[in-house]
Amino acid sequence: MKNLTRRSFLQNLGIAAGSATVAATLPSFICNTKMYDGKKLNIALCGLGRYAGYLAEGLQETQFCKLAGIVTGTPSKAVEWKKKYNIPDKNIYNYKNLDEIINNKDIDLVYVVLPNAMHKEFTIRAAKAGKHIIVEKPMAITESDCKEMITACKNAGVQLAVGYRLHYEPYNMEMKRLGQEKVFGQVRLIEASLGYKSGDPSEWRLNKALAGGGPLMNLGVYCVQSNRYVLGEEPISVTAQFGPVTNKKLFAEVEESITWQLVFPGGAVGTSTSTYNCSIDRFFASAENGFFELSPAISYGPFKGRTSNGELNFPVTNQQAVQCDEIAKVILANKQLPEHISGEEGRKDMKILQAIYEAARTGRKISLV
Ligand code: NDP
Description:
The chain has 369 residues and is α/β, with parallel strands linked by helices. It is built from 12 helices and 15 strands.
């Protein structure tokens, strides 16, 4: 099924006309159908690759944002995007002249969608230019980089968000509610895994310097996230194992797959695999009195979920549009972004990812407290 816009989906569902039963179970941001005609948040996408394409399409569906600018190292993309999205020349930058954006009052926020290892530099440069920032996941490639990014944004008086789109996605937020409200009692076990088959040797994700690591950095971050937000706790220790390398040429620099086990203070264990050698996209939680699960769970959807009480049925949203609108609303209101989407949240995940690598490398249980 195609990703529908929020409005068209709600109209299809009849929610806009007031379907109380479904609407009552939806997060408030899905139900807000009022048209907005105030000041929009002007966003410049930085790094025009595959995901920036999804974001650009999502931004066309937003009420509170405008795709106002671009930052690219590829001149032909500047021409193509300028035409496609009607972007004025004065809002087009490259990686060298980005700092001049400080003088551009028509850009409020830079959305960093570059390879992972470039997130730190471009976040800090955008912050110094006085722009708010959304940075894609993983926030950076080390926890200390995350700290530098947080400090730079704080010093510049700008806000920093991580592009955690699932924090605004109804199925995943239902998993969070079921876990944190202990609807089925205390969660004891979570299995959350994400993987796909990677085969392109030129892909930067296989280059350690640019990616910071393999599937753990790229995909595992979602599994760690889901464990943390479903339990509402921080893990206390981790054990981990690298999987076998079946393609030595492709995986010369980064792991092909990795499995890990997080232990949480409430007694839950979270076991996950992230991999580049097979497809998997699932979340499962077993609690004292029942279970809840999604599969697909983490990709762009549409998601499918059920609990021990039956099927779940939530709207399919444009994840990129909803995420950008919800962040924009907070920034436009001059309020502080909530913790769950902040740079601090990205730092916490990065600390855990680094501990997972250390556990796999050493074969030891690594304490996180
Ligand atoms: P792509 O490879 O498709 O695009 C990256 C872009 O970065 C390039 O097109 C290029 O844009 C720019 N770039 C600058 N320097 C380099 C370099 N040395 N090597 C490669 N690209 C370079 O990657 P994605 O769009 O898939 O990923 C970008 C970021 O977004 C990553 O951090 C990733 O983890 C995240 N992401 C998040 C997703 C989500 O669901 N939240 C999904 C997919 C990715 P240009 O030509 O304009 O200079």
